[in-house]
Amino acid sequence: MQTARKFVMVFAALCLLICLWGCSTGPSEVVDDDTYVLYYTTSNRLALTTENHEVKGSSVQEMGFNMLSQMQTPETVGNYSLFSISGLVNRVAQEGDNLISVYMTENYKQLSVSDEVLLRAGIVKALIQLDGIEYVSIYVNEQPLTDSLGNAVGIMSANSFLDSKGENLSNYQQVTLTVYYGDETGSRLVETERESTISSSFSVERQVVNALLEGPEDSGLLPTMPSGTGLIGVSVKDKICYVNFDKNFLTGDLAANPYVTIYSLVNSLTELSNISKVQIMVDGDSSAKFREIIPLNAPFERNLDYNVTGGRTK
């Protein structure tokens, strides 16, 4: 019963993510140097709506905090605050040239699934208007935000939310992902299967990478991704999958052999029929060396040499 309830909650959240962009109204970019588009919701709390507000501050993080503060008090009749619970925002911090983080209090956990998804969307759309900001992360009690199943949400951008008028519910499907994790020594790869419910409009490639970042469900296996790694983006062109991580990919604690880490990602993604190679980037740059030994400057091809059983050919 609990599993079914969680499925329904996640399913509803996916539906909301699909339709909220299509239902939102108003402009979606800075109006002038001091005026920004801030996000609110309608009376039924099912869509985003907007107001233009002047926002000032001496720094990006101060302006971000002021934005979120002003989003709590709409001025237009019929608009309502996305902040359905008071005392949510603790602080806002700029973590890098293009990343801003919002630190929420314990109260954030009291939000319903639908309210949380809508608030998250409004926060991201508002903050990426700030000069130089392309990505937003959310923390609750200093811990990275997770969804209703406990999966890390990760770093978000404008592309994290679909711009769609909605789609038939039959387009949702249960898929089985083939994902490679480390064996108990971290020196070999073990092929596993992960069940995932996705929409046809959602990226299966991102689901695969998220499964690796979340780590294995089997206690006998080891995670292969460096701890704290954030996913910035995933895209595919000409059968090459471009995976863009944040800097923690290079510095986070590692439980597996570096080559096992690389080929857990490459072999998992090349299980998909539309991918033959994987290009790994860090903050959009592929010039680094992973753990100072593995160059990232060229796409990686599938390599089954690290598999426990030799794996399958494709």
Task: Record the SSE blueprint.
Blueprint: H1 2-23, E1 35-41, E2 48-54, H2 60-70, E3 89-94, E4 99-104, H3 113-127, E5 135-140, E6 143-144, E7 172-182, E8 189-199, H4 204-214, E9 231-237, E10 240-245, H5 248-251, H6 258-269, E11 277-282, E12 289-290, E13 294-295, E14 300-301
Parallel strand pairs: 4-5, 10-11
Antiparallel strand pairs: 1-2, 3-4, 5-6, 7-8, 9-10, 11-14, 12-13
Q: Would you write up a description of this structure?
A:
The chain is an alpha+beta fold and 314 residues long. It folds into two domains: 159 residues, no CATH class; 133 residues, no CATH class. The strands form five sheets. It has a four-stranded mixed beta sheet with strand order 3-4-5-6, with helices on one face. Strands 9-10-11-14 form a four-stranded mixed beta sheet. Strand 5 and strand 6 form a beta hairpin. Helix 1 packs parallel to helix 3 and helix 4 runs antiparallel to helix 6. The longest helix has 22 residues. The N terminus and C terminus are likely disordered.
Key terms:
314 residues, alpha+beta, 4-stranded mixed sheet, 24% helix, 26% strand, disordered N terminus
Biggest β-sheet: count, sense, barrel? 4 strands, mixed
Helical percentage: 10-25%
Alpha plus pi helix count = 6
The structural class is alpha+beta
